Amino acid sequence: MSLWFAIVQGIVQGLTEFLPVSSSGHLVLVQTLFGEGAEINYMLFNVLLHFGTLLSVIVAFWKDIKELFVEFFGWVRDGFKINGHPYRRFIVMLLLTIVPMFAVLPVKSKLEEAFSSPLLVGLLLLLTATILFLSEKAPRKHKTETDATWLDALIVGIGQCFAVLPGLSRSGTTICTGLFRGFSRDFAVRFAFIMSLPVILGANILEIVDVVKDPVTAMAGVSVGCCIAGILAAMLSGLAAIRMVRFVSGRGNFRPFVVYCTLIGTITIVASLIKMV
C-alpha cells in the first residue's frame, strides 16, 4: 500500500464515518472504483482506521466523556441509583442504545455483503437524503439527558441498527431519530456521536478476531508509516466532520447533506443501471 492511498483511505473513513452520508456506502463505492478495496485486502489497516475515528470522538467530546466516566463510578458506588444526576441518566440511555445492536452485530458483515451492490447503495443514499430532509420538519423540542426518556434512547438505538446497511448513514439516522423524539439539536448530535463509541469499539473487536485468525494476510502489504498516516488522517478528518455536523445542525438544517446524498445516490443508480444494460 502506498502512503498516498493510506491517507486517502483515512480521510474517506474519517469524513464519511461522521458526516451523514454513509461511510459503508462510500467504502463500497471506493472499492468499486479502485477494484479490491482496503477493507478486503488490509484487515488490520481497516481496524486502525476505525481506531482513528474512535480517537476523534474522544477528543471532540472529551468533556462529556470525562463526566460520564466519573459519574459511572459514582453510579456504581451508590448502588446504581441515579439520584437526579443527568450524566447517570446519560449512561443508562447509552446502555439502552446498545441492546438492539446485540441482535445485529453478529450478522453485520453478512448484511453489509448482501446490500453492498452499488445499485442498492444508491437507493439507500436516497433514503438517507429523505430522512435528513424530513428531520427539518421535526418538532422543535429541547429534550436533553435531564428529561429524555428510556424509550427515546431505545428507539434511537433501534434506528442505529438499520444504519448497518451500506448507504444508510449511521450518524444521520441516529441524529434524525433523536430529533424526531424531541431531542434538542445539540443533544441529538452529542448523543449520536457518543453512542457511536461502543459500536465502533464492538466492530473493531469483531475485525480484530478476523485479524487474529489470519494475521499474515491481515498485515501484509502495509508499512508502519502507512498505518500511522492512516490513523492520523482518519482522526483529523473525523474531527473536521464532527465540527461540520455540529455547525450545520446548529443552523437548523441538513440541506447540504441532502443535496450531496441525492446527487451521489442518483449518479450511483444511473451508473449501475447503465452497467447492467
Helix amount, in percent? Answer: over 70%
The largest pleated sheet is described as: none
Distance between the termini: 34 Å
What is the gyration radius calculated from CA atoms?
19 Å
Sequence of secondary-structure elements: HHHHHHHHHHHHHHH
User: How would you classify the helix and strand content by structural class?
Assistant: mainly alpha
What's the total number of strands?
0
Provide the low-confidence segments as ranges: 36-40
Give the mean pLDDT.
83
Strand content: under 5%
Write down the overall geometry. globular
- What count of helical segments does DSSP give? 15
What does this structure look like?
- There is one protein chain.
- It contains 15 helices and no strands.
- The chain is an all-alpha fold and 277 residues long.
- Helix 6 packs parallel to helix 9, helix 8 runs antiparallel to helix 15 and helix 9 packs antiparallel against helix 10.
Question: What's the short story on this structure?
Answer:
By secondary structure, this protein is mainly α. It is built from 15 helices and no strands.
How does the SSE layout of this entry go?
Blueprint: H1 3-18, H2 23-34, H3 38-41, H4 43-60, H5 62-77, H6 86-98, H7 108-114, H8 118-135, H9 150-162, H10 170-180, H11 185-194, H12 196-213, H13 215-219, H14 224-251, H15 255-276
Helix pairs in contact: 1-2, 1-4, 1-14, 2-8, 4-12, 4-14, 5-6, 6-9, 8-10, 8-15, 9-10, 10-11, 11-14
